[in-house]
Amino acid sequence: MTKNKQNYMNNPNLPAVGAEFEYSPSQINQLKKASKNLLYFAENFFYIVSLDEGRQKIKLHSPQKRSLRKMRDNRFFILLASRQIGKTTMMTIYALWIACFNEDQRILIVANKEGTAIEIMQRIRMAYEELPNWLKPGVKEYGKTSVTLANGTRIGISTTTGTAARGQSVNCLILDELAFIEPHLVEEFWKSVYPIISSSKKSKIFIASTANGTGNLFYRLYDAAERNESNWAYDKILWNEIPGRDEMWKKDTIASIGSMEAFNQEFNCEFLDSGESSLNEELYAKLIQRSVEPKFIFDEGSYLLWDEPGNDGIYVASVDTSEGVGADYSVVQVFDYSDLTNIKQVAAYSNNTISPYEFTEKVYEILQHWGNPLVCIERNNCGAQVVDNLSRNYNYENIVSWGASTAGRAKGQLGIIAHTNTKHKGVTNMRYWVNELESVEIRDVNLVKELRDFIRYPNGTWAAKRGAGNHDDRVMAMIWNLIILEDEVVKRYFEIAQLDKNNKPLQIKQFDFGIKYFMNPTSMYSNEKDGSLDNTSPIIIGNAMNQDSDLDQLYNAGFKPLQ
Question: What is the mean pLDDT of the chain?
Answer without folding.
Answer: 85
